[in-house]
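Ticket #4471: structure export looks truncated?
Reporter: QA, pipeline team
Priority: medium

Steps to reproduce: submit the single chain below to the structure queue and open the exported record.
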Amino acid sequence: MRTRPLVTSAALLLAALVAPGCILDNPAFDELTIGEVTLSDSDSGVSDSGDTDGAGSYGTSLSGGASAGETDSGGTTGDVSGSAGESEGTTTGLGTDGTTSDASASSTDTGDATTDTGDTTDTGETGDTTGGPESMELKHYTDGTCDTTFWCQPMGNPAPAVNLAVECFDSGLTPPYVVDRVDFQVFKTLGNAPVELHVYEYNEQFNAPKLEPATKQWYGMIGGNGGVFSEAIDPVVINTAKVCVGVLSGDNQSQLGVAANGVKPPLGQSFLGGSGSCMLGTHTDVANFMGASTWCMSAWVREE
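Actual output as written to the record:
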């Protein structure tokens, strides 16, 4: 695990600003160790998710008051996808350059919310998100319910930590198919946290994401007010019926609290790994933890 502060080079940050849709490597995340497992190029499966020694340091933060050192980041304008009959709003959040960015995406919720059981996937109305073939949104939460986060807070106070939050979905498509956008919500931040987006194929044998992501994309720094973030990515082909999206964030000076909906997920759906102030094995199933709930993330998928 690296102990030096994460420093993004000016060239890398500039590239992220001018070409947000490109897949960019962030050297600061190379060989990142989460828990006792190092993310590698191996496709041999997932880590030992039974390593939950650090779970006691993770806890739930609810809306209505930040702890010491936190920045309240629960505010958003509009949302990514409205419920049936709801007018579509414009999502605003801090972009990679620290300014407010328009990240709206057009969709309409046409199915029952799946936050109660998590067995099915809420699919939004198909919409053209990348200028190519139409995509549909996969998610496990209802808009307006993302009022909590489950993050590293030893002794009840948030501390700098690297977290890898991952949410998995039944795609409803026959593989191979494509993921071309990732959405996620941020509830709270501690400092300015570096963020990288991941897309994973699913390992049915382990009932968890594969250890190595199918793609990674450097997003940028998120601090101050959080909100809803939507990022087009270079289309990545997925060869498993289930697909997962992840947000890798934080360093030894910051922590990002990915928003959650307060509903306990079923096994094999929502995962977390951590290092720094809290150690937790990569792709540890949060259904085992009291207070953990479904991540407010979504994947946009389309036929290849």
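Status: closed, not a bug. The export was complete when the record was re-opened. Leaving a note from the reviewer for reference: The CA atoms of residues 165 and 211 lie 13 Å apart.
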